[in-house]
Each structure stands twice: as C-alpha cells, then as structure tokens.
Amino acid sequence: MASIFSKIINGDIPCYKIAENEEFFAFLDVNPVQPGHTLVVPKKEIDYIFDIEDDVLGRYMAFAKKVAKAVKKATNCIKVGVAVVGLEVPHSHIHLVPLNQVNDLNFEHKMTLPKEKMEEIAQSIRQYI
Predict the structure, then answer these.
(1) Is-catalytic flag, 93?
(2) Per-residue pLDDT tens digits for 10-53
(3) What's the pLDDT at 86?
C-alpha cells in the first residue's frame, strides 16, 4: 500500500508543494512545529533514510539543502534545523524547520495554521527556489 507521502506526490492528497524534481518532492508539513516547516521526501518509497543508496542520498541532501536555503530566506530565521525521525510514516523524510531558538525544533508543540497562511508561506518559500 502506498504511503501517505506517495499519495501526496501522486496528487491523491493535496499539499502545499514547495519544489520537486524527478527524484524528490518538498512540501509544507500540515502540522508544523514552526511556520515554514517543510518535509523533503524521495519519490521512491524507502522507509529508512540509511537504506538509501549513497549516490541517491547525496542528491537527496543536495535537494534538501536547496529547499532549506529557500526556507531560510522566506522565513528570515537564524538557521534551518534538520531532523530525520522516520517513525510516524514508513517513507523517508527530512524535516526542515526554521529556527530562531533551540526550542523551535520541538515536535511536542505542533500547530495548525489557516489555509491562507499555509499558501502564503508556500508561495514565499517557492520564490527562492
């Protein structure tokens, strides 16, 4: 069965898309820990990030880096934090979270933002891709 991320990539579930190429896809987390919290996933379903072949993993990180730079510019944060947890969805994903203080990367404090705000954030990030 396809993961929720594969369903998002295939357009079966709507998302706030940030960027994509032939291998990877980036979109806003619908329950962000900070505004601008973005997920980066490979289009091929691979559960564990360290099961990804080395050359693909390098391209995955380079794609995430490009997205992170756009997130930083769009949110005017100090840094973009990176987390790979991988327990909640069996499809590798990198969390990119705008940081202004250490506590900003706390998965216990998820938020819900209005659709209009999510669209505004997505558009703001996309302009820097």
Answers:
(1) yes
(2) 999 999 999 999 999 999 999 999 999 999 999 999 999 999 99
(3) 85
**Per annotation, catalytic residue among 37, 93, 95, 109:** 93
* Angstrom distances, CA of residue 60 to CA of 72, 74, 109: 18, 21, 27
Whether residue 9 is predicted with pLDDT greater than 90 in this model: the reply is: yes
Report the 3 state secondary structure along the chain: CCCHHHHHHCCCCCCCEEEECCCEEEEECCCCCCCCCEEEEECCCCCCHHHCCHHHHHHHHHHHHHHHHHHHHHHCCCEEEEECCCCCCCCCCEEEEEECCHHHCCCCCCCCCCHHHHHHHHHHHHCCC
